[in-house]
Amino acid sequence: MKKKLLLFDVDGTLTPSRKKIEKTMIEMLEKLHYNQNYIIGFVGGSNLEKQHEQLGNAINYFKYWFPENGLVAYENKEEFYKSNLLDFFGEEKLQSFISFVLSYIANLEIPIKRGTFFEYRTGLINISPIGRNCSQEERDNFEKYDRKHNIREKMIKSIKREFQELDLHYSIGGQISFDVFPKGWDKTFCLNHFNLDLFEEVHFFGDKVEKGGNDYELYNDQRVTGHKVTSPKDTLKIVEDMLR
Ligand code: M1P
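Output (structure tokens, whole complex):
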């Protein structure tokens, strides 16, 4: 019998943004794990270390782990795929990209800046105008400030203008940063790891499904049934209805 594949975004869908998973969600994942009709996976923009921190031991309920949009991929806890961003850019272009971003941030006037403005990951680059090692309170304040002043959107526009020749995709998935990666390396990338004919249905749950959000492409992909959620509670409700 074919099974249903359920794929979940992490931040805002399984856990509150950048926070730890709650008990009710752990219980639901446990139910899905032992249900013969379903296979579950998660697909998020963060790296595995951060996802593990948020999901705790509940990570083991997932057969598929897709950190960095599936540019790194695990099945049953074993890594089986890893992409390489450097092959896409080449050292020279990558350096001029980094220099542009850092000088943009150096000239940016915002209420506070901390450290780690540029994070080079396996399959994507994460850029944060305030800096990734700000506190939770500083994060929350930046998010509010950005909603009003569109700091990230403006920055993305400038980078796009400067690097028009690079086929890059920009996506705002969290509170203080945005991700940059080659077009096509969005969350739909994780589907490349499957023969989808083997599943009865494929579902995806995400909160940032509007254009520019990092769930947009997978949510709208013809091969999946997309579920828009507004919080982890919402995810619980939809899945519980499915299981009834
Ligand atoms: O998973 C959503 C996003 O989570 C983090 O964003 P932020 O730190 O801005 O809240 C980052 O890991 C980002 O890469 C990711 O897309």
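The first helix runs from residue 23 to 34.
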